[in-house]
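Please check this.
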Amino acid sequence: MITIQYFGVLKDRVGIAQEEMAWESGNTETLLAELKARNETWADALAPERVFRVVINDEIMYEIAPIQKGDRVAILPPVTGG
């Protein structure tokens, strides 16, 4: 089991802020593929041309990274500001 949090416009588009998800093994790419496969709304919200970051246990991932059972994952949409 992993905990996933969604923020900002991503949270608004998919309609949830947090969920528990059954998880055996995989990485950030595996997770995103599973989420996109849910339906068209998820696929569009997580489309490759959208800029977002995956965070695992409070550490921002800049490349594909493993996700372990028990991890806390956050998906952050683009942030603007100065």
Notes: Strands lie at 2-6, 18-21, 26-27, 53-56, 59-61, 66-67, 72-76. The longest strand covers residues 2-6. Helices lie at 8-14, 28-36, 40-45.
